[in-house]
Write a structure and sequence with these properties.
The complex is a heterotrimer of chains A (about 300), B (about 325) and C (about 325). With about 300 residues, chain A is mainly alpha-helical. Chain A contains 14 helices and no strands. Chain A has a domain of about 180 residues: Orthogonal Bundle (MetI-like fold). Chain B is α/β, with parallel strands linked by helices and about 325 residues long. Chain B contains 13 helices and 12 strands. Among the domains of chain B are: about 80 residues, no CATH class; about 80 residues, no CATH class. In chain B, about 35% of the residues lie in helices and about 20% in strands. Chain C contains 11 helices and 12 strands. Classes of the chains: A mainly alpha (about 300), B alpha/beta (about 325), C alpha/beta (about 325). The interface between B and C is large, with 47 and 45 residues.
Chain lengths: ~300, ~325, ~325
């Protein structure tokens, strides 16, 4: 284990990380976001989900640095009197959870389908790839809107607010498996030609073993590259859905629903209800994308290519 | 005066953690119309030496020492435009894989005419005539029709012939051929090598043949240079080197060939392997694998000594030649 | 044991190339057209030919990596080409394979130890950890590898070392029959000798039977007991090594032998063979070699020659030989 860690630390990967300031800064900011968001229960000054602590008289108080701001609400309050800082912390946590879990689901589905399609080939491959084509031509948001609208109509508001996170993860997770499937399939097709696969067949291993144990570990590079983009996309998708009112409910807001809830107040003066969550969301996505850029470059086969 | 003289060439690759010395103190020369072979295993530096002549070194490689004199002029300091006059015009190059050299989306005709027009003020029609003539010389049947083909419509052997024809288009003084027949089948290989040999003789074109195949070199070249870990270790007339090598490495190489072994018995192998550029030992680079190595060999890089018509970078070349171990 | 260890009877292999669904004659690559060979226990049977002749395809059919379109494959008298994966298991332990490309035949994400332990644990699940470890060490040292390499990954090794690791992997399960598909073609000359020696030692120590695929006839001369020459999916000649080299009967064998570059002191003189290698998609009618054969007659373009067995056991598929014309 120690040897593996040492190898990683000395690898080209870490070396190029140390050289790339943008990557390091993005990583630092992202890490800060994640740590803050997940320590929300500990560090948030208030619990935004506890209806008893919210006083409608406290609504629409501007951030602390403004004239009418108050010290107890650092970033102001929203239309219901909830503390913006706490709500943003919890909201970021929800956004990240949904983003990561949705991607995990995409990966699971996409990898399995991609592996099988690539390795088995023939009709199985054609079937899944055509399915992927069809799904790609329908936009994620469209699918999500339809699914979530039906879901919202079918369940009561209470049940909905409990299940919303899971529904969002499922919907976004299911909508984007083709990205992973295609990437993995392309890698599998390339790896299949290599002789170590033949060697594994000659030893007598069955197809599942070869697919998951031998080929999959060699397809991880492109996976890593698209994963960062996919996480960013998932977070944005969730934000968009919540903004449209189909995602997280107002009582358990994510960044998107917060932005939505403050939208009507932009021109009437309480700009911070929309603006501050927007800035947080943009910063989060930007950092993920910048890191993703660096990962893509770092994993690019470079000057020393094997013969 | 020799047509091409490489004097003390040094090439280095500044890498992230260290500077790799790909070539050190490499010298050889080529007279007009002479056929020289550069032999060595992969990593010995033979291709790099050739690329350096026409300034095709890929970054971060750079020449850090020595000169390359072509017709008396030093090529190492030339700017791009002057180099373009030489490259592909006075000195042509043939690479190993014809499918990589020929552009798959252009017809043979386009590629050949393009070469001529790049170096000469000449009309399309005249260029086409020259192209047909060269294709005929490399024994491509119905050359006028073949001009309209795309590379993938030709067989491997035909493609390599086209590449040779392109190399001859501008009537160069020297052709550098980097492993021209390695990617081809045995029966095609023989044809290509014979073709190159005959063309070089009839057109009085100098040839630098880079290869790892001693047999091919012995049948085609007049002189040969043997390289090991970035240095020249032996040089001399091909026939003499092949029968009486004066460096332990060359000797080891020849004795390791299956045709030099006894059928059914173990082959004479050279223990170990050639050091990578970042791990070249002190002293003579070959000493870890040499049966005759002593402390002097381990301490300092041997100078080139003359043994008869041959030159060997082995401190013991003379003694060993006398003892008949070589 | 009575019969041959491995036998193929009339093996044919076709690869479909797709094409439009309304096409009557979809393009098909006819890689093997009725090849029958026998390999006796203890033999080092060499299969030679140029690219496209089908030698690798035949090896893969024998090993069960490809399904035959027609014909049968036998191992120790039992038919193996139709077996299910489960039924093949005991044979998988006895038949192993070494591949050509040392840079692709080891899984880049598995340590050497893991790569070597895998086949052992798979076929002998009852072996304890200590036993597995010892066996790995024993096989590694027997092929000249350092057992300490176990913790490292393939990319840390050179081509020759990787090939020795591949050989170790093949030997882990104590097979009786090893197919080596061009195992040394991708290696440097001095390393080729090393790896060949390792294979010869393994053969003597473990009483192995080899099917050795190569295009290098000098290796065949050194290593092989019997040789089969293939051209475009057909077997031209099959003979004892010495006989083949002393008296080649088939016209293609003769051309092949003439084309090998030999270390010599005289210049190359070569009469190129007529025509180009046709593709396996549009096979010539009758004898596949007839368009390029100096002895072809009308019958050769009509009728596919079947193998005639000569007095000394040599099998030749040539009308001219059969009719005593040559």
């Amino acid at each position: 284990m120690n040897a593996a860690i040492r190898r990683f630390a000395q690898s080209n990967f870490m070396y190029s990380f140390g050289r790339d300031k943008v990557a390091m800064v993005s990583f630092a900011i992202l890490a800060a976001f994640v740590i803050l968001a997940f320590s929300a229960p500990v560090i948030a000054p208030y619990d935004p989900y506890d209806q008893t602590t919210i006083d409608i008289m406290d609504s629409e108080i501007p951030p602390m640095w403004q004239d009418e701001g108050e010290a107890r609400f650092l970033l102001g309050t929203d239309a219901q009197g909830r503390d913006m800082l706490s709500t943003i912390l919890y909201g970021t946590r929800i956004s990240i959870i949904i983003g990561v879990c949705a991607v995990l689901m995409q990966m699971f589905l996409g990898i399995t389908i991609g592996l099988v399609s690539g390795y088995v080939g023939g009709r199985v491959e054609s079937f899944f790839m055509r399915l992927a084509d069809i799904q790609l031509s329908l936009s994620t948001l469209m699918l999500a809107i339809v699914a979530l609208a039906i879901f919202q109509a079918a369940f009561s508001a209470e049940a909905y607010s409990d299940m919303a996170i899971i529904m969002l993860i499922l919907v976004i997770g299911f909508a984007e498996w083709p990205q992973y499937a295609r990437t993995i399939r392309a890698s599998v097709l390339a790896e299949k030609k290599k002789e170590y696969v033949d060697a594994a067949r000659v030893i007598g291993f069955g197809a599942p073993t070869i697919m998951f144990k031998h080929i999959l570990p060699n397809t991880l590079s492109p996976l890593l590259v698209i994963s960062t983009v996919q996480v960013a996309n998932a977070i944005i998708s969730e934000a968009a859905l919540s903004f449209l009112g189909l995602g997280m409910p107002v009582t358990k807001p994510s960044l998107g629903s917060l932005i939505n809830s403050g939208f009507e107040f932009i021109f009437s003066g309480s700009w911070w209800i929309t603006a501050i969550p927007s800035i947080v969301l943009i910063a989060l996505i930007l950092c993920i994308n910048l890191l993703g850029d660096w990962v893509r470059d770092a994993l690019n086969p470079k000057i020393y290519k094997e013969k | 005066m020799a047509l091409l003289e490489v004097k003390n060439l040094g090439i280095e690759f500044p890498m992230r953690r260290e500077v790799l010395r790909a070539l050190q103190g490499v010298s050889f020369s080529l007279d007009a119309g002479e056929r020289l072979g550069i032999v060595g295993e992969s990593g010995a530096g033979k291709s790099i030496a050739a690329f350096a002549i026409i300034n095709l070194l890929s970054k971060p490689g750079r020449i850090n020492a020595g000169e390359i004199l072509f017709e008396g002029r030093d090529l190492t300091g030339l700017d791009d435009e002057a180099m373009r006059d030489i490259r592909g015009n006075r000195i042509s190059m043939i690479f190993q894989d014809p499918m990589m050299t020929l552009n798959p989306v252009l017809t043979i005709e386009t590629q050949m005419i393009e070469v001529l027009k790049a170096h000469r003020n000449i009309s399309d029609n005249d260029a086409r005539k020259i192209a047909v003539e060269k294709l005929r010389e490399v024994a491509i049947p119905s050359p006028e029709d073949r001009l309209k083909s795309y590379p993938h419509e030709l067989s491997g052997g035909q493609r390599q012939r086209v590449v040779i024809a392109i190399a001859l288009l501008t009537d160069p003084s020297i052709i550098i051929a980097d492993e021209p027949s390695t990617a081809l089948d045995v029966t095609i290989q023989a044809g290509i090598m014979a073709l190159m040999l005959n063309l070089c003789k009839s057109h009085d074109v100098g040839l630098i043949l880079i290869t790892h195949d001693l047999a091919v070199v012995s049948q085609v070249t007049q002189r040969v240079v043997v390289m090991y870990a970035g240095r020249v270790v032996e040089e001399g007339p091909t026939a003499e080197i092949v029968t009486h090598p004066k460096h332990p490495y060359t000797r080891g190489l020849i004795k390791a060939l299956p045709q030099e072994g006894t059928a059914g018995k173990r082959l004479n192998q050279i223990p170990g392997s050639m050091p990578t550029l970042d791990a070249i030992p002190d002293g003579c680079a070959f000493h870890p694998r040499c049966p005759h190595a002593d402390d002097v060999c381990r301490a300092s890089v041997p100078e080139i000594v003359r043994v008869g018509n041959q030159f060997s970078r082995c401190g013991k070349a003379n003694e060993l030649a006398e003892e008949n171990s070589l | 044991m009575s019969g041959p260890l491995v036998e193929t009877r009339g093996v044919e292999k076709r690869f479909d190339l797709g094409g439009y669904f309304w096409q009557q004659d979809k393009p098909v690559v006819r890689a093997l057209n009725g090849v029958s060979i026998t390999i006796e226990k203890g033999e080092s049977f060499c299969l030679v030919g140029e690219s496209g002749c089908g030698k690798s395809t035949l090896a893969r059919c024998i090993m069960g990596l490809l399904e035959v379109s027609r014909g049968e494959i036998y191992y120790q008298g039992e038919r193996i080409d139709l077996l299910s994966a489960k039924a093949m298991m005991p044979y998988r332990r006895r038949m192993q394979m070494i591949f050509q490309n040392p840079y692709a035949s080891l899984n880049p994400r598995m340590t050497i130890q893991k790569t070597l332990e895998e086949p052992l644990r798979f076929h002998f699940p009852e072996m304890k950890n200590g036993e597995v470890h010892d066996k790995v060490e024993e096989v590694m040292t027997s092929v000249g590898n350092d057992p300490a390499w176990g913790t490292r990954y393939p990319h840390e090794f050179s081509g020759g070392q990787r090939q020795r690791i591949s050989i170790a992997r093949a030997l882990m399960v104590d097979p009786d029959f090893v197919v080596a598909d061009e195992p040394i073609s991708a290696l440097d000359v001095s390393i080729q000798a090393q790896v060949l020696n390792v294979m010869m030692d393994a053969r003597d120590m473990r009483d192995l039977t080899y099917l050795f695929i190569t295009h290098d006839l000098s290796v065949v001369h050194h290593f092989g007991t019997r040789v089969g020459v293939m051209y475009l999916g057909a077997l031209c000649e099959l003979a004892q090594t010495k006989t083949l080299f002393d008296t080649p009967r088939h016209p293609y064998t003769q051309v092949l032998l003439n084309a090998i570059p030999k270390l010599s002191t005289t210049e190359l003189t070569h009469t190129p063979m007529l025509g180009e290698v046709p593709t396996a998609i549009k096979l010539p009618s009758g004898c596949v070699f007839h368009p390029r054969c100096p002895y072809a007659n009308e019958r050769c373009s009509r009728e596919v020659p079947t193998g005639t067995t000569l007095d000394d056991g040599t099998v030749v598929a040539c009308h001219a030989v059969e009719e005593n014309r040559i």
